[in-house]
Amino acid sequence: MFLVLPACQDQPRQEQVSKEDDRFDAFKDKLVLKFWKLHPEWATSQGYHKYDHVLTIPNADKRKAVVRSYKAFEKELKSFALNKLSDNNKTDYKMLQNFLRGGIWRIEEFKSYEWDPSEYNLGSSVAEILNGRYAGLSVRLRAISEKLRGSVDYYEAGIKNLRRPTLEHTQLAIAQNLGALTVFKPALADSIAKSDLTQDEKAVLQQRVETTQLAIENYVRYLQETELPGLRQGKGRSFRIGRDQFTQKFIYDIESGYSAKDVYEKALLRKKELHKLMLGVTRTLWPKYFPGKPQPAGLAGVKQMIARLSQNHVPPDSFLLAIRGQIPQLVAFVNQQNLLTQDPSKPLEVRPTPAYMEGVAGASISAPGPYDKAAPTYYNVSPLNKFTPAQAESYLREYNRYMLQILNIHEAIPGHYTQLIYSNRSPSIIKAILGNGAMVEGWAVYAEQMMLENGYGQDSPELWLMWYKWNLRVTLNAILDYQVHVLNKSQGDIIRLLTQEGFQEDAEAEAKWRRATLSQVQLSSYFTGYTEIYDLREQIKKKEGEDFNLKAFHEQFLGYGSAPVQYIRQMMLPD
Ligand code: ZN
Ligand code: ZN
Fold it and tell me: What ligand is nearest to the CA atom of residue 309?
């Protein structure tokens, strides 16, 4: 189903373009092609398919070559006069500089290739080519065949890189590589049989697939038999990266104007504030839902109220329909309240998550990549038909009628989908491939609050309470990320934080703990971006007073594309 949004017109921002910009644009185009040559798997994932057949062998020579190239690119970048560039190019310049420095730091200092065995996995890049729709099956299979020639060398280089891996990443690598075998066993075999490759080509590919399976099995065995026993006795490296590396990684990955420590402190304050707000709303709602019953003191009352409101959910078979039905209502609300201009020409299709993407998230947006701009945007919703009735019930309670609206605001309108449309209008290949995750996620979280502030849901206390819970999750993600990696907090401390202060179920809290042991900094990105956007808006509001216009603020902010908020801030609010 294609959704047609109501019509409205709007001009993209006009910018002065200098000679320096022309030179910089040429540099960027050339640089991106060099990135693809250097990182074929990244190219494939971005929809650039010239190097699909190339397999990167992750050895020391490769790392040296990357560092050498990045240093040369950085030098070339410095030959441009930043102040002569357009806003669009200024932000691209800074994003590139940060990317190159971060890349060198990752190889020279962070060295996850030594301690994270899950970096070695042929499953995802092969699956990406196998499931691609950009070319006929035989073209894609020939690329896979060529790529798999190096599979033995690939895993051998991986084994050689490892030095005291962490127990957690080793267990993940075993599970994921066993999962990768399913790409090679049933899926690839089926496709080979169906294809019109010649008999010879089929035979060669089949042989390479078999060799790859053996290489994967050998890698898994190595991890299980050589690494795992020592790791189980505590001989591995800690998954906690510590204060110095966390602080540094935060700078490269989040590109925030705040430091990791600033964000942690802001998140602690926000947690307190949210608890206060939740207690207030619970007091208002209590007599309506529990007439004649005394309200338990403190957060226990909030917990009961949330459980009560969660019973209000849609039936399992209408989950997707409920989402579809809500999109036009969100579009209408944004227009009525004049929150920002929408583009009626870009369709959003709500669909069940395709099988090959399953197991990722309950709901996600698939946007067209930089080389495939005409493709539609999909809102993927995982169907509940594979759940047991108990699992479906628990999921539906989590995504109850209130949360479902917040989810749709976040994923679609005016969250991710709307932001993407604006981002595509200030075209920049750099922002398309290096888009700032904190800004993108931060915008979606900001959009939730902004809709509620403007009266979405008739200011219903129920909706506000659920949003506070949702926002608390984002806040706690930032808190626990810092507490795990910098402050050495135990699993018990984190589970207590999430269940007692975040109203989360045990299963959700356990899964979050696991995610915190396997990732670093990423969990902080949502809260950081959201806080930066909110702070920026409040400061501009204060400065402009009566002249402040919310729609103008949104459109200018989004017009810079998926750039880090600190750079957008430098342009919207120069010191
Ligand atoms: Zn129910
Ligand atoms: Zn999101």
Answer: 1
